[in-house]
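Intended use. Records like the one below are meant for learning the mapping from a protein sequence to its folded structure. Do not use them to infer anything beyond what is encoded.
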Amino acid sequence: MNTDVKCKEVGENCIYWQPINQSNQSYKDVIHSWKIIFFAFKEEDLSTGVEGLRPPQIGAIHAGLGYEKSDHNESATIVMPTGTGKTETILSLVVAGKFPLTLVIVPSDALRTQIKNKFLNLGLLRKLELVDDKFENPHVATITHGVKRLQEIDELLNSNVIIATPSVFSNFSASCLATLLNACTHLIVDEAHHIAAKTWTNIKTYFLDKKVFQFTATPFRSDGIRVEGRIIFDYSLKKAQLDGYFQEIDFHSVKEFTQEKSDKAISEKAIKILRDDISLGFDHMVMARASSIKRAKEIFKLYESETDLYPVLINSKTKNSKTKLEAIKNGSHKIIVCVDMLGEGFDLANLKISAMHDVHKSINITLQFIGRFTRTNNKLGNAKFIANIANTGVSKELAKLYVEDSDWNNIISEVSLNKIKDEKMYQEFKEKFSESTNIFNLGLVPNMSTTIYRLASKSWNPQNIFSLGEKHFKIFEHTVNDENDTIIFSTKTYVPVGWTKSKELFDEIWDLYVLYYDKENSLLFFHTSNKGTLNRYIVKSIANKAIQVRGEPIFRALYGLRRLRLQNVGLNKNKKGVRYTMHTGRDIAEQIPDIEAQRAVKSNIFGKGFENGEETSIGCSYKGKIWAMDSDSIDKWFTWCKNVGKKILDESIDPNHVLKTAMRNTTLSSFPHLPIISIDWPVELLRKNEETIIIGNTDWSEKLVNCELNSALLPAPDGKEISIYLCTPENRSEIKFSLNNDEAKFESSDDLYIQFGKTPILLNDFFSEHPPTLLLVDTSYIEGDQHYYPNEQYAYLYDKNKIKIWNWEGVDISTESQKVQKIRSSIQYNTIEKIKGSYDLVFDDDGSGEIADIVAIKNDNDRVLYIDFFHLKYCSKNKEGLSNPGARVDDVYQVAGQAAKSIKWISDVDKLISRLIYRETQRLAKDELSRIDKGDLEYLFYLQKVAKLAYYEFNMTIIQPAISKSKVSDEQLIILGNAETYINEITGIKLNVISSA
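Structure written out for the chain above:
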C-alpha cells in the first residue's frame, strides 16, 4: 500500500486520503468499492490461531447492521468495555454498512486525531484481511475550526467520513451547520456518556430520521442525566474480564485520617510499587490523581525528589503541554501528577499504577477511570490502584471498593452489570411513553414516597392538569403514557424571597409531579417534591372524585417486613398536657401496649426489616403519606407503589398486629439460657469477598471461604460466657465470648488474626467492633451485648404430617458425609443417588464454609432455576454401638441451625454459583475427585450466565435419619418449627424434613 497521505486544505480544515495505489480515486469511487466488494466477517479463533474480529466486535457489528435495517428511529447504544476494540468496531460498522457520509463525533482533539489515523488506512481491518486491496480507503475530513462559508462546506462534503468535536460547531454559521449536518447520512458518537451536553443534543436534532450509533463503555453519565437511546448490544465487563480483555487489578490501601498523612502514605506506596515493578522488568508508570490544580501542585512535592523516575506535573494550565504529553508517550517520565486523566483518547498501556490521592465520587467516572489502567499487554503486569480507605465520602455503590479486603475485579464488574441492567429496565419503562419528551433524560431520581387515593376510572382526566397549570404554575416538561394511566410533569413557580418585602424579587422553584392510576385496583398514587398546599388542587383537577386513604389502613404498608425493627414511633395520646410523643430505641417497646389497648393512636412509624430477602425500610403517617429512606429511578418508584398498594387494599392485615410482631431489643447483663442453633459471621464480612479474607495465627492460615463458626449448645451456667469455635478443614480454635460490665468481650488463646489485604488485625478486636450473630432456638438473636427478640414467644410446632419418611436400609446412618472417597454407605451418597434424577446439577458442598451439604439445581429452559439446599445430619451411636432413630432433641439443633445459616445465600444467586465454582476449582487443584455428582464445571459456568436473566425458586430440606417420625417429640417439632418460621420470615421459603420411620 502507498503510505503517502494526501491532504487537501479546505479553509482551516483538511480532507485526508491514503490511496492504496497511485490511482486518484474520488470519494464516490470509494463508496462504490465498498458496495461491490465483500467485507469478510471473520472472527478470531485462538484455538486454531485464526486472526479476526474479537467476539465483542463481531457481536456489536452485527447488532449495529441489524439496527440499520430496522424501522427504529431512536439512537442505538453499543456498550463495549475499554480494551475490547471499540475503534475497529466503529470502522467495521461504517465500511460493512456502506454508509455514504458518516459524521463521527468525539469528545477531544486527541481522539479526533486517533480515530482519523485509523480511518485513513482502515486500521487492523487490512491486517486481519477483513477487506482486500480493492477495498478503497475513505476520504476523511477533520474539522478543527468553525466554518462561515458555504463553499467550504460543499468541499468538505466531498468525503466519506467527517470527524469533529462537538464544541467546534459553535463556531459555524447557522446555514453552514445546517448544510453540513443535513448532508450526513449517519451519526456515530464515540464516548457517548457525554451525549447529553447541550451542543451534542443540538447536533442530534439533525438526525431524527437517520441512524445514530452511540459507543461507550459506561452508558450512564456522572451527573445522573440519562444517555438517550436504546442499548442494542452490551458486552459486560465481567465477560471482558473472563475473555482476557481487561487486565487484572490489585488494590493497595492506606488508612490515614488526615490529608497530609494520607498523601504521604499513598505516594510512598506508589513509589515502592513502581520500583518493585521496574525491578521485575515491567515498564510501568504511575499516575497520581488530584482533584484540582492546587492539590496537584501539593502532591507533586511528594514525588519530585524521585529524580531518577523523572516526575512531571501536567494540567490544563501547563506550558508546552503538547511537548510534555509526547515525552510521556515516549516513556521519558515514570511518574505523572495530573488533575483527572489526560483527556479522552489518551491511551497509554504503560499507565498501570494509579495513586488516587483524591478519589472520584461518581461510579460512572470511576469505571471510566479504572478502564484507562486495565488495557491488556503481555509485556506488562497487573493494574494497581492505591487509595486511602478512611473518609472517602463516596456513594454506597462505590463504598465496597474502599475497604481493606476489597476485590476490585469482582466489585467493578458487579457494579457495572447492575448499572447496565438498571439502564435496560429504565429503557423498557420509557418505551411505554411514545409521546416525545425530554423529561426522561433529566436523570429523575424521585424519593420513594406517595400519597394514595381511591378513584373510579370515570374521574381520571390527566389532561386537565394543563388548564390548572395556566393559573398557578408553568409546566415545562410533561408526558402521558400510551395506556393513559400515568402523567409525569415538571413545574416552575416563583416564590417571594424571605429576606425582603420587595415584590420584585423571587426564587425559582422547580418541582416534579408523578401520578399513576392503577386501574385494576382503582388506586391513584401521587408523588411530588412540592411540600405546599397546591397538591390537593392538582389531584382534584385530575381526579375530582378521588378519596385519600388515611388513618389505620396506611399502616398496613408495614406488613411483610420480616424481623421488623422499629426505629421511631410517634403517638397521639389523650393524656392531660401530652398530645404527641415520639419514641425511639427500647422506649418503643413500652408504648406498644398502649397502642394495643387503644390508649394511644399511631401518628407516624418508621422501621427497617427484610422483604423478599433484602433489607428495606418503610415509613407511614396517619395523614396518608408512605415513604422509604431511598431515592431511585422513576421506573423503580412505580414498582414500589404497586407493592405498597397491594398491602393497603388487603383488609386482612391488622396494623396493630404488625407492631405486635416487631422485634424488640435489650442490653444483656447475662446470656439467656436458651440453646444456640447457629452462629454466623458479622454482616460486615458477609458483604465482602470471602476468598480474599484470611484468618489464622502463627501456625496456620486459611481463607474465610473455608472457615465456619460453631458454638456450644448453651451458655455457661452463670450466663456470662459462650464458647465459640472457629473451624477449618484442618484446625479448630476456641474463642470465649463473655459479658463484662454489660460489654461484649472476645478472647482467643490461639492469637487468631483476620487479614484484609495486607493488614492483619486481631480477631478479638474485630469481633468486639463487629460481633458475630448467634441465633437462639426461639428465633431471637444476639449481637454483642444486644439481644433482639420477638414480642411473643415462638413455640411453633412443625407440622408432623409434613415429615417425609425415607427407607434407610443398607445405609450407615451414623456416617453423614460421603467425603472425597465417595463412601457409598453414607447418608450423603445415598441422598445424592436418590435425588439426582430430578436435577441437572448436583453439587457436594460438604465441609467448612459450606452453603449446604448438597446444592441441587434444576434448569427449566433457561427461564427458571430451581435451587434446592439439602442439610444432612447423622444419627449418633449409643453405648452398644447402634444408631437408633428416636426423639432426641440434640439430633435436631445443629441441622436446624445449618438450615437457618444458609439463608444468606438466597439473596445473591450469582455469588452462590460463584462460590460453587470456587469450591470445585479448589478441589480439582488438589487432584481430588470432583464435588459435582451430576453435571460438570462447564455446565456450572453456563448456569452462572443463565442466572443473570432467569427467575429463581428456592427450596430447603433437612435430612436427619436420627429423627423417627413415629416417635418425634414436641421438643423436636418446636425446634424445627421455629427454624422454619425464621427461614420463612426472611425468605418466604418453607422447610421440608425427611426422617426415619
